[in-house]
Amino acid sequence: MKAARLHALRQPLRIDEVTTPVVARDEVLIRIAGAGVCHSDLHIRSGEFPLPPGFDLPLTLGHENAGYVEAVGPDVTSIRRGDAVAVWGGRGCGSCRICRQGDEQCCNMALWVAAGGYAELMHVPSERFLIPLDGLDPVAAAPLADAGLTPYRAIKKVLPHLYPGAAVVVVGIGGLGHMALQILKAVAPSTRIIAVDVARDRLDAALALGASDAVDAGGDPAGEIMRLTGGEGAQAVIDLVGSDATLRTAAGAVGRMGIIVVVGLGGGTLPYSFLGVRAECTVTCSYWGSYNEFREVLALARGGHIRPVVRRYPLEQVNEALDSLERGEVHGRAVITP
Ligand SMILES: [Zn+2]
Ligand SMILES: [Zn+2]
């Protein structure tokens, strides 16, 4: 089978002919229909994410996956060959305290690094990581596994702050941001949703997706948000970029007793001090999402509340997809369709 593998840092992936995995016990082989292209893969390619212990190049990247069951091990009971499934990717060691409470994606073992979706077939170590799609298109569903799930978990953290009429800010309207707006529309319909981005076309897309206001990050976004909210500020800011500039915007735009959730891996630092932010602000980060949260995201999609905007690339164009993402040229999510 074909797989797009990273052989050396800062180099393009190579399309290799590799051995098709065999399945034992409760393992499953998936024929990939869609594999979302994520910023994290750029960080792995560039070496900014050091490879965890036990991982060596070459690696098959790709951790937002959906497709059809190709083969099942003898102990598999929940799915059959031909079923359309999404793969929950955040699996951890399975036995530490965090894994046992259901937050495996926060485990110290970053097993997702080599999840293996940029390939014709993908080996999944247990059926328990799969969720039947029940009618969803696997190409559209693939990016829900991260670009949908990650903002969903962040939104769950801010929901207790969102009283009717409160403002929530989403910074960065890319792959995650366009899903965040749709999820907020569904789960917090009485809030004012303010989108922030540097690109005019993304702000226009945000308004089309239901944002109440679109704020140009190139001006004085925090000042504009304070003005839009009558001086109250936003009750929640979800920063999907995480740069110095966007975190400054978050700190300047969050209102009293509000919350900032940092999701983007932009490497910035938040200027947080007693008098530097408004009274009793909470700052936290949000890390991917749990298996159950992924089920909730898929339920939202089945209900028509999330419609991922997808641009398809064949496996042979995986490097074009990664490079387009790096240049900020992808609208919605790039999805590899082997
Ligand atoms: Zn990702
Ligand atoms: Zn663990």
Characterize the structure shown.
This protein has 10 helices and 16 strands. Strands 3, 5, 6, 7, 8, 15 and 16 form a 7-stranded mixed β-sheet that branches. Strands 11-10-9-12-13-14 form a 6-stranded parallel β-sheet, with helices on both faces. Helix 4 (149-158) crosses helix 5 (175-187) and helix 7 (221-228) runs parallel beside helix 8 (244-253). The protein has helices at residues 39-46, 97-100, 138-141, 149-158, 175-187, 200-208, 221-228, 244-253, 291-302, 318-326; strands spanning 2-6, 14-17, 28-36, 59-60, 65-72, 84-87, 121-124, 130-132, 167-171, 192-197, 213-216, 234-239, 254-262, 282-285, 310-313, 333-336. The protein has 338 residues and is an alpha/beta fold. The N and C termini lie close together (11 Å). Helices cover 26% and strands 24% of the residues. It folds into 2 domains: 2-145 and 289-336, Medium-chain alcohol dehydrogenases, catalytic domain (Quinone Oxidoreductase, Chain A, domain 1, Alpha-Beta Complex), CATH 3.90.180.10; 149-285, 3-Layer(aba) Sandwich (Rossmann fold). Helix 5 (175-187) links the parallel strand 9 (167-171) and strand 10. Bound molecules: zinc ion (2 copies). Residues 38, 40, 63, 146 line the site of one zinc ion (ZN).
